[in-house]
Specification:
The structure holds three protein chains of three kinds. Chain A is built from 14 helices and two strands, in the order αββααααααααααααα. By secondary structure, chain A is mainly α. A two-stranded antiparallel sheet of chain A has the order 1-2. In chain A, β1 and β2 form a beta hairpin. In chain A, α3 runs parallel beside α7, α3 crosses α12 and α8 crosses α10. In chain B, α2 links the parallel β1 and β2. The chains are: A mainly alpha, B alpha+beta, C mainly alpha.
Chain lengths: 302, 455, 295
């Protein structure tokens, strides 16, 4: 192997670019154009049929004065703050439990995974049934333990919890992610901990969590990106109601773009959302150095 | 004649007649083969109707191929929007009132007026307001297809079995809103079989309701009820919102009373997940669009009666369209940039007025009939239940009040309606007062009207 | 929850130290674990029972509020499948899904490798850009993207549904990068000393180590492509080109819906997703194999 230090560095860079360029090509051809277009459109009035007209910052100022904008931002933030941590905690717990050596493991895992597979109209029909206050199974179960269940989707108080529960029902999808992560934890670490007499809880706190922290970080970032953009639940089930109590941000965006033909305003909404998510994400990336354990820290530290 | 000669003669004969046939059918277009894209939404049954009428047209025009773009209802409008942006709309489209005005005002559709004039069709043969309501500034953009021979009319459907059990006679033609409330209360039963008019009725344990219209989110109900109380959403010129008015307040509180005071209407919460309370046998009377009504009667296994709308303090709730893009019924449109406007028009005319098209699609299509000369053919095709609806529709037309109303149209309809639903549901839940509701809606609607008039 | 956590041994460690005073605690904990897991599984599965019952309802009962049909209408399954060309739909779904699983999994792995293991200028910026592309809502780029594919003449072909996947998917690139990040560098370096080039290291060192992660990416891609409704609907025009996810929606009408048929097809469409997971998950118990082989 003939190599001088400097050329190794150059070679490294060349390989890096070579591998990454695959994605860059895709970005240039399919991603960047539309993204830039939406940025430009956000400064225009664009009704799709006629050419866009430049109106400067009008869309953005209108947004700040719209009470619906703030309401949808509030609803979406509450949804994110509650459902992302819950999803992570339940997902990890499930994965750890289903990583144990138990009977019927495959069937249990499949059972938990199943809900994440159902999509579209079937979900809407299903949850409509579940949340019916008179005939639905949920309130029937609550009644059995002496609780009178709320009107769920028709209650301004309970509609958001109802949609959060609905989202958590498909937590089996993220369980898969954590299961994959658990497979990478070297078993030797547990053996060593056991010799030291560490309890199971301790073993998880000091081995499992640090070792799968890169994946937890990934799920946190993506959970936040995803739940800021949550749409389908409200679109198929509540249309944002009652009142505006489940009016998610992207539902607001969608209605402006495809129902009111205010594409310019919708683009401005998208960029406002982008800014919010981006700030949170940058904060998370910064925090990663304190709690995410990387074998290779160079990307974040250097 | 030898066998060979016989065959040769036969081949020549077939060829000759084929050539003659080609020349005979529309000589102008024989030289060129045309593919026309036809877009529509529907269920598998409704798509079969599209396919049959397209095939019938191809048979008449051998040089034309109809290429179907048949989509589900969900997502249809989203796709059209993307196609509009890319100037790739189908040549001929089945078009809903839900987006006709928006698309028409953006120049998406071909102006059919010159073709209409040349064709010697008469506007009077179409549903009342069908041609005028589909025109903007005198340009016709859509031929109506209705859901039936109506302009998107609303009727009351009732469950005859429930009426019989409650010892109620069929609603008379001149029944009033108070009659409606009375019947609805009598038809509302708790678990012990007591109705809402009886002492000891338990509203918290209702098993059957008189109606479901107390849910404010139903635009069919509002469009009919508001005129019955003497009000409307805005003035005829569409310059001022008229929501903060006594008439509107009366209608809103009447609807709320139906649920909370008279206990006669199924609350929205109880309807969660029940796609159709009437078909589910939970509700005795509903307001239904006529085209929905037809489907409805086909679905249920109990006898369905049809009644006209009840009369309110200011007459029968009913609107009629003077003019201006108000799209009283669904219809067919042609893309503004189609390559074959002439043949597209031929196709649309065929769909709207030809008995061949009507017979090909049958009665299960998204498209119905809005062309008077075909009414008798149409009525013969309908099953008895649906025929009943048509007759009530027809009668309602003849007795319609002279006062003309503009249904919410234009660019702001969807946004207006979404806000209306949201605010009214907060009022229904007791989250905001009636005064607050009306003030907010008045202000929001005024803003939307201004936006519309400015653009 | 801590009781159940305490009560079992993770896969990786051999259940060896069963000291006597604690056997009853272990038994108690084990039972609790089973009760919790089976209870949860019932909650997760209950809706499917409902879906099956819904699919078996006769036509005149689809709107009834009771969830038990008066009789099981098994003919709903063949009836639903023959209303539209569902054979085509399933085949199209299979083609598009297979292509995406292959392309997205492999290309995302390759790109992630570039981000995870090589130093170059602009790497942090590019990675942040990658994550940032995930933050733009789909609906706002839908129209520009549609116009682009239209200009390319790709509308009404499978290309818009497949080609973008060839260049990797930002979500999976990010994921794979995270997995690669937790594999010790010493393994690469050891291979490098033995003369392995970058591709050899990827295939011989990193991929075997993160195979469960690649399986996960494959499962995720499968599911998202298989269930994708809007993209096929928008980019394809002719009905025989549509996928199952679109086909399902035909049963949902403007005014009335055939829920029984819709549920019947929805259930059939679930089967491939379940099978894929059921068989793929054997890679999630690799830990057992490795650790017992070591012993």
């Amino acid at each position: 192997m003939q190599k001088r230090p400097r050329s190794l560095k150059q070679q490294q860079a060349r390989y890096g670019w070579a591998f990454v360029s695959l994605w860059i090509v895709g970005l240039v051809f399919f991603g960047l154009g539309p993204i830039i277009a939406s940025g430009v459109l956000s400064f225009t009035q664009y009704d799709i049929a006629s050419p866009p007209q430049w109106i400067g910052l009008a869309n953005y100022t209108h947004m700040l004065h719209s009470s619906v904008f703030w309401q949808s931002l509030k609803v979406t933030t509450i949804y994110t703050v509650v459902s992302v941590p819950l999803g992570i905690i339940i997902g990890i717990t499930l994965a750890i439990m289903l990583n144990a050596r138990i009977r019927g493991l495959r069937f249990l895992r499949t059972a938990y995974y199943l809900p994440s597979v159902v999509s579209g109209v079937a979900v809407a029909a299903l949850w409509g049934w579940i949340y019916n206050p008179d005939y639905g199974p949920l309130n029937a179960a609550l009644k059995a333990i002496g609780i009178t269940g709320p009107a769920w989707l028709e209650s301004t108080t309970w509609v958001l919890p109802a949609l959060i529960i609905m989202g958590l029902w498909s937590v089996g999808g993220s369980m898969v992610m954590y299961l994959a992560a658990l497979q990478q934890v070297p078993t030797s670490l547990y053996e060593a901990a056991k010799i030291d007499g560490a309890s199971i809880v301790r073993q998880h706190m000091s081995i499992t969590f640090p070792m799968i922290s890169p994946v937890i970080f990934f799920m946190l970032v993506n959970g936040i990106i995803g739940s800021f953009q949550v749409f389908t639940q409200a679109y198929v089930l509540t249309q944002g109601g009652p009142g505006y109590s489940s009016y998610f941000f992207v539902l607001y965006l969608y209605e402006n773009a495809f129902e009111y033909f205010k594409m310019g305003y919708a683009a401005a909404l998208a960029w406002a959302l982008f800014l919010a998510i981006f700030l949170v994400t940058v904060l998370l990336f910064w925090s990663a150095r304190f709690w995410v354990y990387y074998e290779d820290t160079s990307l974040w530290a250097g | 004649m030898s066998r060979l000669k016989f065959m040769a003669a036969g081949v020549a004969g077939v060829l000759g007649s084929a050539m003659l046939a080609a020349v005979g059918s529309s000589p102008a277009m024989a030289s060129q083969h045309i593919t026309l894209v036809f877009g529509g939404w529907g269920t598998p049954q409704q798509i079969q109707a599209y396919q049959s009428e397209a095939a019938a047209f191809e048979k008449l025009h051998p040089n034309v191929t109809i290429q179907g773009e048949y989509l589900p209802w969900n997502g249809y409008e989203t796709k059209l929007t993307a196609q509009l942006a890319a100037h790739q709309l189908p040549d001929v489209m089945v078009t809903s009132t839900a987006w006709f005005s928006e698309f028409a005002s953006k120049g998406a559709y071909l102006n059919m007026t010159p073709y209409f004039k040349q064709s010697h069709l008469s506007a009077n043969d179409f549903v009342p307001g069908g041609i005028a309501g589909n025109s903007i500034h005198g340009h016709l953009y859509m031929l109506p297809n209705g859901g039936a021979y109506t302009i998107g009319d609303v009727v009351v459907l009732y469950n005859k079995t429930m009426f019989k059990k409650a010892h109620l006679s069929a609603p008379p033609r001149n029944w009033t809103l108070s009659d409606f409330v009375h019947d609805a209360q009598k038809l509302t039963l708790d678990a012990n079989g007591k109705n809402a008019l009886e002492k000891g009725f338990n509203p918290n344990n209702t098993v059957q309701w008189g109606t479901d219209i107390g849910d404010s989110s139903n635009d069919a109900v509002w469009d009919e009820l508001l005129p019955a109380f003497g009000g409307w959403y805005y003035n005829t010129q569409e310059t001022h919102a008229t929501i903060n008015t006594p008439a509107f307040a009366d209608a809103a509180s009447w609807l709320k009373d139906l649920v909370t005071k008279w206990h006669a209407s199924m609350p929205p919460a109880a309807q969660t997940g029940i796609a159709d309370p009437f078909a589910a046998g939970k509700v005795a009377m509903i307001y239904a669009w006529d085209n929905q009504a037809q489907t409805e009667t086909g679905l249920v296994n109990f006898p369905v009666g049809v009644a006209p709308l009840p009369v309110g303090p200011h007459g029968r709730g009913f609107f009629k369209v003077p003019n201006g893009a108000a799209a009283p019924a669904n219809g067919w449109t042609i893309a503004a940039n189609t390559k074959y406007p002439k043949i597209a028009w031929e196709f649309v005319k065929f769909l709207a007025t030809s008995p061949i098209a009507l017979k090909a699609r049958g009665i299960n299509g998204v498209e119905g009939l809005a062309y008077a000369p075909l009414t008798s053919t149409w009525l013969k095709m309908l099953p008895p239940k649906a025929r009943q609806i048509e007759l009530i529709d027809h009668w309602q037309y003849q007795t319609a009040p002279t006062k003309l109303m503009v249904p919410p149209g234009g660019n702001m309809y969807t946004e207006f309606w979404n806000d209306m639903t949201a605010q009214l549901s907060l009022y229904d839940l007791g989250k905001i007062s009636l005064h607050q509701t009306l003030t907010t809606l008045q202000k929001d609607t005024q803003t939307l009207l201004q936006q519309q008039n400015n653009s | 929850m801590s009781a159940s956590l305490k009560s079992y041994t993770p896969l990786h460690s051999k259940a060896s130290t069963m000291t006597k005073p604690w056997w009853w605690a272990r038994l108690f904990g084990r039972s609790l674990l089973y009760i919790v897991l089976i209870g949860g599984a019932i909650i997760a599965l209950l809706p499917f029972v409902w879906m099956v019952l819904e699919a078996l309802k006769p036509n005149y009962e689809i709107y009834s509020a009771s969830w038990l049909p008066t009789h099981f209408e098994w003919s709903n399954f063949p009836a639903a499948l023959t209303t539209l060309p569902f054979g085509h739909f399933f085949l199209n779904s299979a083609i598009v899904t297979f292509a995406n699983v292959i392309f997205q999994t492999s290309s995302s792995t390759i790109v992630a490798y570039g981000f995870a293991r090589f130093q170059f200028k602009g790497r942090r910026f590019l990675f942040l850009l990658l994550v940032a592309t995930l933050m733009i809502p789909y609906y706002v780029t839908l129209i520009p993207v549609f116009i682009e594919f239209d200009k390319l003449g790709w509308v009404n072909t499978f290309l818009p549904l497949i080609v973008p996947g060839i260049f990797g998917n930002a979500f999976y690139i990010f994921l794979m990068r995270q997995f690669f990040g937790s594999i010790p560098r010493e393994l690469d370096e050891a291979a490098m000393v033995e003369g392995a080039g970058p591709l050899t290291i990827l295939f011989r060192v990193l991929i075997p180590q993160s195979f469960p992660a690649m399986i996960t990416v494959g499962i995720y891609t499968f599911l998202s492509t298989w269930n994708d409704f809007l993209n096929p609907l928008i980019y394809l025009n002719q009905m025989q080109n549509y996928t199952v996810a679109v086909g399902l929606e035909y049963f949902v009408g403007q005014y009335s819906s055939q829920w029984n048929y819709m549920m019947a097809v929805a259930l059939l469409a679930l089967i491939p997703c379940i099978l894929i997971f059921f068989f793929a998950q054997r890679y999630f118990i690799q830990g057992i194999v490795v650790s017992s082989a070591e012993k």
